[in-house]
Amino acid sequence: MKKKKPVIEILIAGDEILSDPVREKNAQFIAESLRAAGFDIEFITITGDNIHNLSGALKHSSRRADIVLVTGGLGPTSDDRTVEAFAAAFGLNLVLHEKSLKRIEALFRQRNRKMSDSNRKQAMIPEGASALENPIGTAPGIYSHIGHTDYYFMPGVPAEMEKIFGETILPKIVSEYEHEERDIEILRLTGITESELYDKIGSIGGAKESVRYYPGLEGITLKIVTAGQSAPAAKEIGSEIIETVGDIVFSSAGESLEEVVGDLLRERGMTVSAAESCTGGRIMNRLTKIPGSSDYVLAGVVAYSNESKRNILGVDKGMIETFGAVSAEVAGAMSEGVRRISGADIGISTTGIAGPGGGSAEKPVGLMYTGISTAKGTETKKLQFVEDRLINMGIMSQAVLNILRYSLINMR
User: Fold this and answer.
1) Which domains does the chain have, with CATH numbers?
2) Each residue of 319-331: pLDDT tens digit?
Protein backbone atom coordinates (compact mmCIF):
# COMPACT_ATOMS: atom_id res chain seq x y z
CA MET A 1 0.00 0.00 0.00
CA LYS A 2 1.37 3.38 -0.98
CA LYS A 3 1.97 6.13 1.55
CA LYS A 4 -0.22 9.25 1.40
CA LYS A 5 0.78 12.09 -0.91
CA PRO A 6 3.94 13.63 0.60
CA VAL A 7 4.95 17.13 1.59
CA ILE A 8 8.05 17.80 -0.51
CA GLU A 9 10.81 20.35 0.02
CA ILE A 10 13.69 21.20 -2.33
CA LEU A 11 16.84 22.47 -0.64
CA ILE A 12 19.55 24.10 -2.77
CA ALA A 13 22.98 24.52 -1.16
CA GLY A 14 25.78 26.80 -2.34
CA ASP A 15 27.17 30.29 -1.81
CA GLU A 16 27.26 30.74 -5.60
CA ILE A 17 23.46 30.31 -5.72
CA LEU A 18 22.89 32.85 -2.97
CA SER A 19 25.04 35.39 -4.82
CA ASP A 20 23.29 34.77 -8.16
CA PRO A 21 19.98 32.91 -7.64
CA VAL A 22 18.91 33.52 -11.25
CA ARG A 23 21.49 30.91 -12.31
CA GLU A 24 19.77 28.22 -10.26
CA LYS A 25 18.06 25.69 -12.55
CA ASN A 26 18.07 22.50 -10.47
CA ALA A 27 14.99 23.39 -8.43
CA GLN A 28 13.07 24.16 -11.61
CA PHE A 29 14.00 20.81 -13.15
CA ILE A 30 13.10 18.86 -10.00
CA ALA A 31 9.84 20.74 -9.45
CA GLU A 32 8.66 20.35 -13.03
CA SER A 33 9.55 16.65 -13.06
CA LEU A 34 7.61 16.08 -9.85
CA ARG A 35 4.59 18.07 -11.02
CA ALA A 36 4.51 16.07 -14.23
CA ALA A 37 4.51 12.90 -12.12
CA GLY A 38 1.56 14.14 -10.04
CA PHE A 39 3.29 15.65 -7.00
CA ASP A 40 3.36 19.21 -5.65
CA ILE A 41 6.21 21.18 -4.07
CA GLU A 42 5.46 22.88 -0.77
CA PHE A 43 8.83 24.52 -0.04
CA ILE A 44 12.01 25.58 -1.85
CA THR A 45 14.92 26.65 0.36
CA ILE A 46 18.24 28.16 -0.74
CA THR A 47 21.11 28.28 1.72
CA GLY A 48 24.82 28.97 1.53
CA ASP A 49 27.75 26.75 2.46
CA ASN A 50 27.94 27.93 6.08
CA ILE A 51 27.75 24.65 7.96
CA HIS A 52 25.70 26.09 10.85
CA ASN A 53 23.05 27.56 8.52
CA LEU A 54 22.99 24.50 6.29
CA SER A 55 22.66 22.18 9.26
CA GLY A 56 19.83 24.32 10.63
CA ALA A 57 17.98 24.27 7.29
CA LEU A 58 18.26 20.49 7.08
CA LYS A 59 16.99 20.07 10.62
CA HIS A 60 14.12 22.49 10.05
CA SER A 61 13.03 20.56 6.95
CA SER A 62 12.56 17.39 9.02
CA ARG A 63 9.78 19.12 10.96
CA ARG A 64 7.65 19.91 7.93
CA ALA A 65 8.52 17.66 4.98
CA ASP A 66 8.15 13.98 4.18
CA ILE A 67 10.69 14.21 1.35
CA VAL A 68 13.65 16.61 1.17
CA LEU A 69 15.56 16.81 -2.11
CA VAL A 70 18.96 18.41 -1.67
CA THR A 71 21.35 19.50 -4.41
CA GLY A 72 24.86 20.92 -4.10
CA GLY A 73 27.80 20.57 -1.75
CA LEU A 74 28.85 17.00 -2.56
CA GLY A 75 32.15 17.97 -4.20
CA PRO A 76 35.70 17.33 -2.97
CA THR A 77 36.63 20.83 -1.76
CA SER A 78 36.45 22.43 1.67
CA ASP A 79 33.36 24.49 0.79
CA ASP A 80 31.37 21.33 -0.08
CA ARG A 81 29.76 20.77 3.32
CA THR A 82 26.31 19.34 2.74
CA VAL A 83 27.03 15.80 3.96
CA GLU A 84 29.00 17.12 6.92
CA ALA A 85 26.14 19.48 7.82
CA PHE A 86 23.58 16.67 7.61
CA ALA A 87 25.67 14.47 9.90
CA ALA A 88 26.02 17.34 12.38
CA ALA A 89 22.28 18.10 12.30
CA PHE A 90 21.29 14.58 13.31
CA GLY A 91 24.34 13.43 15.30
CA LEU A 92 25.57 10.93 12.72
CA ASN A 93 29.09 9.72 11.96
CA LEU A 94 30.47 9.71 8.44
CA VAL A 95 31.66 6.32 7.19
CA LEU A 96 33.59 5.30 4.10
CA HIS A 97 31.47 3.69 1.40
CA GLU A 98 33.95 1.30 -0.19
CA LYS A 99 31.96 0.64 -3.35
CA SER A 100 31.72 4.37 -4.10
CA LEU A 101 35.44 4.85 -3.46
CA LYS A 102 36.31 2.04 -5.88
CA ARG A 103 34.02 3.55 -8.47
CA ILE A 104 35.66 6.99 -8.09
CA GLU A 105 39.11 5.43 -8.42
CA ALA A 106 38.02 3.54 -11.53
CA LEU A 107 36.60 6.71 -13.05
CA PHE A 108 39.91 8.51 -12.65
CA ARG A 109 41.79 5.59 -14.19
CA GLN A 110 39.39 5.55 -17.10
CA ARG A 111 40.04 9.26 -17.68
CA ASN A 112 43.79 8.71 -17.33
CA ARG A 113 44.01 11.19 -14.47
CA LYS A 114 45.45 10.97 -10.98
CA MET A 115 42.86 10.96 -8.22
CA SER A 116 43.35 13.65 -5.57
CA ASP A 117 43.15 12.71 -1.90
CA SER A 118 40.30 15.22 -1.62
CA ASN A 119 38.11 13.00 -3.83
CA ARG A 120 38.10 10.37 -1.10
CA LYS A 121 35.80 12.73 0.79
CA GLN A 122 33.10 12.08 -1.81
CA ALA A 123 32.88 8.44 -0.73
CA MET A 124 32.09 9.39 2.89
CA ILE A 125 28.38 9.02 3.69
CA PRO A 126 26.33 9.27 6.92
CA GLU A 127 26.02 6.04 8.88
CA GLY A 128 22.85 4.17 7.98
CA ALA A 129 22.57 5.95 4.62
CA SER A 130 22.64 4.41 1.13
CA ALA A 131 24.72 5.54 -1.82
CA LEU A 132 22.92 6.27 -5.10
CA GLU A 133 24.98 5.62 -8.21
CA ASN A 134 26.09 8.63 -10.21
CA PRO A 135 26.65 7.32 -13.76
CA ILE A 136 28.50 10.39 -15.06
CA GLY A 137 30.33 11.98 -12.10
CA THR A 138 32.41 11.19 -9.06
CA ALA A 139 30.10 12.09 -6.16
CA PRO A 140 27.42 9.47 -5.47
CA GLY A 141 23.95 10.54 -4.49
CA ILE A 142 22.87 9.67 -0.94
CA TYR A 143 19.60 8.48 0.61
CA SER A 144 18.90 8.67 4.33
CA HIS A 145 15.72 8.26 6.37
CA ILE A 146 15.42 10.34 9.56
CA GLY A 147 12.21 10.12 11.61
CA HIS A 148 9.39 10.41 9.06
CA THR A 149 11.53 12.19 6.44
CA ASP A 150 13.30 10.79 3.39
CA TYR A 151 16.42 12.79 2.49
CA TYR A 152 17.90 12.55 -0.99
CA PHE A 153 21.22 14.26 -1.73
CA MET A 154 22.40 14.98 -5.27
CA PRO A 155 25.38 16.83 -6.80
CA GLY A 156 24.80 20.43 -7.85
CA VAL A 157 26.13 19.79 -11.36
CA PRO A 158 22.88 19.81 -13.40
CA ALA A 159 23.73 16.89 -15.70
CA GLU A 160 24.66 14.68 -12.73
CA MET A 161 21.66 15.77 -10.69
CA GLU A 162 19.26 15.11 -13.57
CA LYS A 163 20.64 11.59 -14.10
CA ILE A 164 20.39 10.59 -10.44
CA PHE A 165 17.00 12.20 -9.93
CA GLY A 166 15.43 10.98 -13.17
CA GLU A 167 16.76 7.43 -13.13
CA THR A 168 16.77 6.59 -9.43
CA ILE A 169 14.99 9.04 -7.12
CA LEU A 170 11.83 9.95 -9.03
CA PRO A 171 10.91 6.32 -9.84
CA LYS A 172 11.35 5.47 -6.13
CA ILE A 173 9.08 8.32 -5.04
CA VAL A 174 6.44 7.39 -7.63
CA SER A 175 6.46 3.76 -6.50
CA GLU A 176 6.15 4.58 -2.79
CA TYR A 177 3.73 7.54 -2.58
CA GLU A 178 0.22 8.33 -3.74
CA HIS A 179 0.11 10.92 -6.50
CA GLU A 180 -2.39 12.62 -8.77
CA GLU A 181 -2.72 11.46 -12.36
CA ARG A 182 -2.14 14.45 -14.63
CA ASP A 183 -2.49 15.08 -18.33
CA ILE A 184 0.35 17.23 -19.69
CA GLU A 185 1.01 18.87 -23.05
CA ILE A 186 4.04 21.06 -23.86
CA LEU A 187 4.12 23.68 -26.60
CA ARG A 188 7.07 25.87 -27.57
CA LEU A 189 6.52 29.18 -29.33
CA THR A 190 8.61 32.07 -30.61
CA GLY A 191 8.02 35.47 -32.19
CA ILE A 192 5.38 36.62 -29.70
CA THR A 193 5.44 38.26 -26.27
CA GLU A 194 3.95 36.64 -23.21
CA SER A 195 1.23 39.30 -22.90
CA GLU A 196 0.28 39.01 -26.59
CA LEU A 197 0.06 35.26 -26.25
CA TYR A 198 -2.09 35.52 -23.10
CA ASP A 199 -4.51 37.85 -24.89
CA LYS A 200 -4.80 35.45 -27.83
CA ILE A 201 -5.40 32.23 -25.90
CA GLY A 202 -6.95 33.44 -22.65
CA SER A 203 -10.50 32.80 -23.83
CA ILE A 204 -9.83 29.18 -24.84
CA GLY A 205 -11.77 26.85 -22.57
CA GLY A 206 -9.61 25.61 -19.70
CA ALA A 207 -6.56 27.68 -20.72
CA LYS A 208 -6.62 30.14 -17.80
CA GLU A 209 -6.70 27.34 -15.26
CA SER A 210 -4.29 24.91 -16.88
CA VAL A 211 -1.66 26.85 -18.89
CA ARG A 212 1.65 27.87 -17.32
CA TYR A 213 3.92 30.33 -19.12
CA TYR A 214 7.72 30.07 -19.14
CA PRO A 215 9.20 32.93 -21.21
CA GLY A 216 12.92 33.13 -22.09
CA LEU A 217 15.38 34.26 -24.73
CA GLU A 218 14.55 31.18 -26.79
CA GLY A 219 10.83 31.82 -26.90
CA ILE A 220 7.97 30.79 -24.62
CA THR A 221 7.29 27.32 -23.31
CA LEU A 222 3.67 26.56 -22.45
CA LYS A 223 2.96 23.69 -20.11
CA ILE A 224 -0.66 22.63 -20.11
CA VAL A 225 -1.51 20.56 -17.05
CA THR A 226 -4.96 19.15 -16.37
CA ALA A 227 -6.17 16.73 -13.72
CA GLY A 228 -9.44 14.96 -13.03
CA GLN A 229 -12.02 13.44 -15.34
CA SER A 230 -14.07 16.64 -15.61
CA ALA A 231 -11.14 18.71 -16.89
CA PRO A 232 -10.58 19.07 -20.65
CA ALA A 233 -7.64 17.02 -21.92
CA ALA A 234 -4.36 18.91 -22.13
CA LYS A 235 -3.95 17.77 -25.74
CA GLU A 236 -7.34 19.25 -26.66
CA ILE A 237 -6.38 22.61 -25.17
CA GLY A 238 -3.01 22.42 -26.92
CA SER A 239 -4.64 21.71 -30.27
CA GLU A 240 -6.93 24.71 -29.87
CA ILE A 241 -3.96 26.91 -29.01
CA ILE A 242 -2.14 25.76 -32.14
CA GLU A 243 -5.25 26.43 -34.22
CA THR A 244 -5.50 29.92 -32.72
CA VAL A 245 -1.88 31.09 -33.02
CA GLY A 246 -0.65 29.00 -35.97
CA ASP A 247 3.01 28.64 -36.91
CA ILE A 248 4.37 30.62 -33.99
CA VAL A 249 4.14 27.22 -32.27
CA PHE A 250 7.32 25.56 -33.45
CA SER A 251 7.11 22.41 -31.34
CA SER A 252 4.49 20.31 -29.58
CA ALA A 253 7.00 17.69 -28.47
CA GLY A 254 9.50 19.76 -26.50
CA GLU A 255 12.13 20.16 -29.26
CA SER A 256 14.36 23.19 -29.42
CA LEU A 257 14.09 25.54 -32.39
CA GLU A 258 17.44 24.32 -33.73
CA GLU A 259 16.15 20.73 -33.64
CA VAL A 260 13.04 21.70 -35.58
CA VAL A 261 15.11 23.63 -38.15
CA GLY A 262 17.47 20.67 -38.48
CA ASP A 263 14.58 18.28 -39.12
CA LEU A 264 13.18 20.61 -41.81
CA LEU A 265 16.57 20.88 -43.52
CA ARG A 266 16.99 17.11 -43.49
CA GLU A 267 13.45 16.53 -44.79
CA ARG A 268 14.09 18.86 -47.72
CA GLY A 269 17.59 17.56 -48.38
CA MET A 270 19.02 21.06 -48.00
CA THR A 271 22.18 22.51 -46.46
CA VAL A 272 22.88 25.77 -44.64
CA SER A 273 25.87 27.96 -43.82
CA ALA A 274 25.99 31.06 -41.65
CA ALA A 275 27.97 34.31 -41.68
CA GLU A 276 27.74 35.94 -38.27
CA SER A 277 28.91 39.29 -37.00
CA CYS A 278 26.83 40.51 -34.04
CA THR A 279 25.92 36.98 -32.87
CA GLY A 280 29.55 35.85 -32.76
CA GLY A 281 28.89 32.22 -33.71
CA ARG A 282 25.82 31.58 -31.57
CA ILE A 283 23.70 30.43 -34.49
CA MET A 284 26.25 27.86 -35.60
CA ASN A 285 26.72 26.77 -32.00
CA ARG A 286 23.02 26.07 -31.68
CA LEU A 287 22.73 24.30 -35.03
CA THR A 288 25.75 22.07 -34.42
CA LYS A 289 24.71 21.08 -30.88
CA ILE A 290 22.29 18.67 -32.52
CA PRO A 291 23.64 15.15 -33.18
CA GLY A 292 23.77 14.47 -36.91
CA SER A 293 23.84 18.16 -37.83
CA SER A 294 26.69 17.43 -40.26
CA ASP A 295 23.92 16.19 -42.57
CA TYR A 296 22.82 19.76 -43.23
CA VAL A 297 25.34 22.25 -41.77
CA LEU A 298 28.24 23.04 -44.10
CA ALA A 299 30.16 26.04 -42.72
CA GLY A 300 30.14 28.97 -40.36
CA VAL A 301 32.07 32.25 -40.59
CA VAL A 302 32.36 34.81 -37.80
CA ALA A 303 33.10 37.88 -39.91
CA TYR A 304 33.34 40.49 -37.18
CA SER A 305 35.52 43.13 -38.81
CA ASN A 306 34.82 44.98 -42.05
CA GLU A 307 38.01 43.44 -43.46
CA SER A 308 36.78 39.91 -42.82
CA LYS A 309 33.45 40.73 -44.41
CA ARG A 310 35.32 41.88 -47.52
CA ASN A 311 38.16 39.35 -47.64
CA ILE A 312 36.29 36.19 -46.66
CA LEU A 313 32.72 36.83 -47.77
CA GLY A 314 33.41 39.15 -50.69
CA VAL A 315 31.27 42.04 -49.44
CA ASP A 316 32.01 45.09 -51.60
CA LYS A 317 34.09 47.77 -49.85
CA GLY A 318 32.00 50.52 -51.44
CA MET A 319 28.81 48.93 -50.07
CA ILE A 320 30.17 49.02 -46.54
CA GLU A 321 31.32 52.63 -46.94
CA THR A 322 27.98 53.72 -48.42
CA PHE A 323 25.52 51.87 -46.19
CA GLY A 324 27.61 50.90 -43.17
CA ALA A 325 28.40 47.43 -41.86
CA VAL A 326 25.09 47.42 -40.01
CA SER A 327 22.70 47.59 -42.91
CA ALA A 328 20.28 45.49 -44.93
CA GLU A 329 22.60 45.67 -47.92
CA VAL A 330 25.58 44.24 -46.06
CA ALA A 331 23.46 41.57 -44.35
CA GLY A 332 22.21 40.44 -47.74
CA ALA A 333 25.72 40.40 -49.23
CA MET A 334 27.03 38.40 -46.25
CA SER A 335 24.36 35.72 -46.70
CA GLU A 336 25.12 35.53 -50.44
CA GLY A 337 28.86 35.35 -49.77
CA VAL A 338 28.72 32.50 -47.27
CA ARG A 339 26.34 30.58 -49.51
CA ARG A 340 28.69 31.03 -52.46
CA ILE A 341 31.97 30.09 -50.75
CA SER A 342 30.50 27.08 -48.92
CA GLY A 343 28.25 25.71 -51.65
CA ALA A 344 25.25 25.59 -49.28
CA ASP A 345 21.65 25.71 -50.46
CA ILE A 346 20.90 28.45 -47.92
CA GLY A 347 23.09 31.23 -46.54
CA ILE A 348 22.07 33.16 -43.43
CA SER A 349 23.74 36.19 -41.87
CA THR A 350 23.69 38.61 -38.97
CA THR A 351 25.07 42.10 -38.50
CA GLY A 352 24.16 44.65 -35.86
CA ILE A 353 24.99 46.73 -32.81
CA ALA A 354 24.84 44.40 -29.83
CA GLY A 355 25.86 47.11 -27.34
CA PRO A 356 26.19 48.42 -24.79
CA GLY A 357 28.07 51.09 -26.80
CA GLY A 358 28.49 51.85 -30.47
CA GLY A 359 25.01 53.14 -31.20
CA SER A 360 23.85 56.46 -32.68
CA ALA A 361 20.59 58.28 -33.29
CA GLU A 362 20.37 56.72 -36.75
CA LYS A 363 21.55 53.29 -35.67
CA PRO A 364 20.75 52.71 -31.99
CA VAL A 365 22.04 49.90 -29.82
CA GLY A 366 20.01 46.78 -30.49
CA LEU A 367 19.59 47.48 -34.22
CA MET A 368 20.27 44.30 -36.19
CA TYR A 369 19.83 42.95 -39.70
CA THR A 370 19.67 39.42 -41.02
CA GLY A 371 19.93 38.10 -44.55
CA ILE A 372 18.82 34.80 -46.03
CA SER A 373 19.99 33.77 -49.49
CA THR A 374 18.73 30.86 -51.60
CA ALA A 375 18.70 30.01 -55.32
CA LYS A 376 15.47 32.03 -55.57
CA GLY A 377 17.04 35.23 -54.28
CA THR A 378 18.00 37.13 -51.14
CA GLU A 379 15.80 38.66 -48.46
CA THR A 380 16.75 40.84 -45.50
CA LYS A 381 15.00 41.81 -42.32
CA LYS A 382 15.53 44.68 -39.88
CA LEU A 383 15.16 43.94 -36.17
CA GLN A 384 15.35 46.18 -33.11
CA PHE A 385 16.08 44.79 -29.67
CA VAL A 386 17.30 46.20 -26.34
CA GLU A 387 20.51 47.66 -24.87
CA ASP A 388 21.89 44.49 -23.28
CA ARG A 389 24.64 42.80 -25.30
CA LEU A 390 24.08 39.18 -24.25
CA ILE A 391 20.31 39.44 -24.45
CA ASN A 392 20.59 40.88 -27.96
CA MET A 393 22.87 38.06 -29.08
CA GLY A 394 20.48 35.45 -27.69
CA ILE A 395 17.32 37.01 -29.12
CA MET A 396 18.95 37.54 -32.50
CA SER A 397 20.04 33.91 -32.79
CA GLN A 398 16.48 32.86 -32.01
CA ALA A 399 15.00 35.32 -34.52
CA VAL A 400 17.30 34.21 -37.34
CA LEU A 401 16.63 30.52 -36.74
CA ASN A 402 12.92 31.29 -36.77
CA ILE A 403 13.23 33.19 -40.06
CA LEU A 404 15.06 30.15 -41.45
CA ARG A 405 12.26 27.92 -40.14
CA TYR A 406 9.58 29.98 -41.90
CA SER A 407 11.60 29.96 -45.11
CA LEU A 408 11.83 26.17 -44.99
CA ILE A 409 8.11 25.79 -44.18
CA ASN A 410 7.25 27.91 -47.24
CA MET A 411 9.34 25.62 -49.46
CA ARG A 412 6.76 22.85 -49.09
Assistant:
1) 8-176 (3.40.980.10), 182-251 (3.30.70.2860), 257-409 (3.90.950.20)
2) 999 999 999 999 9
